[in-house]
Amino acid sequence: MSLVLALTAGALFAAGTYLLLQRLLTRIVVGLGLIAHGANLLLLGAAGRPGAAPIITEGGAAYSDPLPQALVLTAIVITFGVTAFLLALAWRSWALTRSDAVEDDLEDRRIARLGRSGG
Amino acid sequence: MAIFPSTHATLGAPATAGRRALHLRAGRAVTLGLLLAAPFATAMVLLAVPGRARKTAAALALLPLVGFTAWAVASAGPLLSGGEITLALPWIPDLGVALDLRLDALGLLLALVATGIGSLVVVYSAAYLPAGIHLPRFMAYLVAFAGGMVGVAAADNLFGLFVFWEITTVASYLLIGFSDDKGSARAAALQAVLTTSAGGLAMLAGCVLLSRQAGTATLSAILAAPPSGAATTAALALILLGAFTKSAQVPFHGWLPAAMAAPTPASAYLHSATMVKAGVFLLARLHPGFGSDPIWAPVITTVGLATMVLGAWRALRQTDLKLLLAFGTVSQLGFMTALLGLGLVHAALAVLVGHALYKSALFLVVGTIDRTAGTRDLRVLSGLGRRLPGLLAVAAVAAASKAGLPPLLGWAAKEAAFAEILTVAAWPVVILTVAASALTAAYALRFVWGAFATKAMAPDARPLGAGVLPPAPGLWAPAALLAAASVVLGIAPGWVDRLVQAAAGVPGKLVLWPGWQPALAASGAAVALGAIIHLGRTRAAHLQAAGERLFRSLRFPTADGTYRRSLEGLNRLADATTGTLQHGSLPVYLGVILLATLGLPAAWWLAGGAGMPAPPLAHRPAEVALGLLAAAAAFGAARARHRLTAALFLGAAGYAVGGIFVLYGAPDLALTQLLVETLTVAMFAFVVARLPRRHEEARLPWWRALRVGVALAVGAVVTWAALAVGGGGGGEASAAYLEKAVPEAGGRNVVNVILTDFRALDTLGEITVLVVAAMGVAGLIAGARVASGREEDPR
Questions:
Q1: Amino acid B697: pLDDT
Q2: For B740, which residue in chain A has the nearest alpha carbon?
Q3: Chain B residue with Cα closest to A102
Q4: Whether residue B614 is found in the same domain as residue B518
Q5: Higher pLDDT, A27 or B605
Q6: Cβ of B535 under 8 Å from any chain A Cβ?
Q7: DSSP B614
Q8: Which residues of chain B make contact with A114, given a CB cutoff of 8 A?
Q9: Is B650 left (phi over 0), alpha (psi -120 to 50) or beta?
Q10: Same domain, B521 and B624
Q11: ipTM
Q12: Nearest CA-CA partner of B307 in B444, B445, B443, B432
């Protein structure tokens, strides 16, 4: 895997993680998208040295590895589905509560307080 | 579980070379299996019997118990001569788990006690339990419990033994909490099940450890060639925990007095005669293999002696007749345990049989008193003996057996025990035993006196018991039968002696008159001392109260206090753990998951675990530019304050990645990527149009710094992992796809062929995911419209 590809994937993951660790759904969706891009690059890099597009031609020799490409193609489509769903969630959340923030679970917070107060 | 497994009944193989090989009919083994299954089947049937069919329920419950008792007596002969009935019932062979049965004399002893006394208790229950109580349900639990006991007695596999052991725990729980509308009964049931199943879990761990040490989980094989060493001792210690909790040994005895919340027949049966004997039985079972283990004698003897003395002391303080008997049971269980610790298996088993007979009789007597007089408080009872002389006679015989008076079985057992103790034990053990026996005699007297005597009452007290009516036969006959057995077997202890000797595997002597010997002096002293304590009971009570005040002032831990504090501590620990681990914040969950996922490879990396070849900078010159573009776009997306800006940056990063796809010879990916990115940005634009433009959030500086830290760590580990893993390609699989695409699938575009032909089913799954997502989106959007009232229902 080339250094540039690895660094690019790392940068996408870093920026994606930064966004993922926030509360607004739109930020989380963007973060998820960036991480998906990074993951796709990793899959692509796993193929090793790139060659010609894996479309069989007479006398063709060095093709790119087709298997990672098939995986990436699947990943792109699934990411699209997930993104669409999360955006719809954000939209509904806004419509209902005028906020698209992921709030803390109230019940969990109550148990946490119970634990701190010692029973 | 294999109900009808490939049964091969092996028979009569003696465990030791010294025993006579016997050839029993194969039918016996199968009969044993069926008789063991019968109680559980009956329990199932009983659960379906309506509550008013009391006679049917009692008859049904009697069937498997009497059946087993009769069969066991009939086939006792060969077993008493060292024979065994074995039946192989495989369950999970790969794990060494089986329900193998192996009934020998020791197992026969416990099984007979369980089913014999069980039959009488069933008869008694039918007369005792009031009409409001669902008798079939009670009988179902009782019979299932009896089945569990027979299973414990006959199991020849450590895990099979554990399964039956826990069946008795569960049945006990159901019976203690039978009056489930009473909070006290529920609490007592919980305490019993928590204590005994905690011990049971320790025992399970011990069984696993032991079976690993021995290389087999078959009990007889382990006992024939017991492993040794530190791990074996640890396993033994864990199994002892199980035995101690089950047999209510100090400091786990607290559950047994609490278990008196059960209906009295259940107390008589489970909590005095049978279940609590399971721990003692297990010790006797293990003794041949592990009696010489370094912890055997000191630990078991100490625990047993402590339990014996403490139980007897507490018994003398009780005013509730049932509690008095319960603490007496604790004490006697301690006696048996101490005997087993000293290796006196014969004496321990003799005491076990004697105790089972008289203690169940006494409990049944208490139940009858409770039913006829309406109380079992000895401070209120007075004059009952005059009204019910028959019941008094039964109680007196049983109590005399308990105190160890001739010519009863309790006497013969105690004489044998004293004689054996005097030959092996040091004088502190002898003194403690005599002291506890004196207390036992004292509380036996106290029981008879408290229940039946005509007492001088305070003038304003309203003594109960003067006007009672004679009880129905079902309420006294079973107890009378048990008391009679104590007499008959005491006068002619030969049969019990044969059984106990065969079960213990060692010679012993159980006789009516052992002759003048030192043991006689010891037991005589104990009985005399007991009588003196009873006669001076007022003074003794003062002395005891003073002693208890002393213990309280020393803040000596009590069993109940320890149980309560452990529960509270457990709750606090659970709250604290849940509060820390599951405190409700999604970002924190994600952060923890990410860091944990990265931690392992990162540790490997920092430890220098990955040597890697120097990677090429880039495979294509343009890669550098596109990579920089993607990284910059990602940075921009992270920094963007407007939602739409962030979405555009995301799209830019996607286009850059698509460019890299082109460079890497992946035109299909590039096409899809460009299309999807465009669609994604469009979707964003559509959604964001309804939302506020900015999507900043209130940020705490340290929280933001933490996020940046986690993000950088993730990026660094991903980069390193990518370089460390390198790119080897799909290897054989990829080569095969390239090779077969044209001849087998008839397509030249290999990526497409993989998706639509070779892995078509996966693609179908992928499409399904998209459909589900689309349905979700449609639902969310349609629902949101209604909820926000933008589309009012026209009607």
A1: 61
A2: A56
A3: B586
A4: no
A5: A27
A6: no
A7: P
A8: 575, 579
A9: alpha
A10: no
A11: 0.93
A12: B432
Instruction: Tell me which chain B residue has its CA closest to the CA of residue A25.
Output: B695
* Among candidates A23, A106, A111 on the partner chain, residue whose Cβ is nearest the Cβ of B579: A111
Task: Specify the pLDDT at position B584.
Answer: 80
Interface touch B769/A81, C-beta < 8 Å: yes
DSSP calls for B315-382: HTT--BHHHHHHHHHHHHHHHHHHHHHTT-HHHHHHHHHHHHHHHHHHHHHHHHHHHHHS--BTTTB-
Residue B1 has a pLDDT of 39
Together in a domain, B531 and B596: no
- The closest CB to that of B714, out of A17, A100, A102, belongs to A17
Is there a contact between A87 and B719 if contact means CB atoms under 8 Å apart?
no
Q: Which two tokens stand for residue B279?
A: 């721990």
- With CB atoms and an 8 Å threshold, state whether A26 touches B594: no
Closest CA of chain A from B281, distance in Å: 40
B507 and B603 inside one domain: no
Query: Which of A34, A74, A89 is the best mutation test for B, with the most CBs of B within 10 A?
Result: A34
Residues 605-634 of B with CB under 8 A from A: 615-620, 623-624, 626-628, 630-631, 634
Q: Same domain, yes or no, for B523 and B598?
A: no
Are B665 and A54 an interchain contact pair (Cβ–Cβ within 8 Å)? yes
Q: Return the residue matching tokens 């001392």.
A: B529
Q: Mutate which of B595, B718, B720 to test chain A, going by most A C-beta atoms within 10 A?
A: B718
Rounded mean pLDDT, B500-524 = 84
In three state form, how does the secondary structure of B569-599 look? HHHHHHHHHHHHHCCCCHHHHHHHHHHHHHH
The answer to the question of residue B223 being in a domain is no
Separation between Cα atoms, residue B215 and residue B209, nearest integer Å: 10
Q: Is residue B366 part of a domain?
A: yes
**Is B756 inside a domain boundary?**
no
CB under 8 Å to B488, separation ≥6 — which residues?
Answer: none
Residue B464's DSSP bridge partners are B381
The total of other beta-carbon atoms located within 10 Å of residue B549's CB is: 10
Structure tokens at B553: 């002032």
Task: Assess whether B324 and B471 both reside in one domain.
Answer: yes
Structure tokens at A88: 């719809």
Residue B668 maps to which CATH number?
Answer: 1.20.120
The nearest CA of chain A is from the CA of B605 a distance in Å of 16
The model's confidence at residue B4, banded by pLDDT at 50, 70 and 90, is very low
Same domain, B485 and B613: no
Do residues B337 and B483 share a domain? Answer: yes
Domain count, chain B: 2
CA distance B399 to B394: 9
Domain containing B465 equals 301-535
Q: Do B650 and A34 touch (CB under 8 A)?
A: yes
Contact A67 B712 (CB under 8 A): no
Give me the percent of chain B exceeding a pLDDT of 70. Answer: 92
Q: How much is the pLDDT for B296?
A: 93
Residue B397 within any structural domain of the chain:
yes
Domains and CATH numbers, chain A: 3-117 (1.10.287.3510)
Does B110 score more than 90 pLDDT?
A: yes
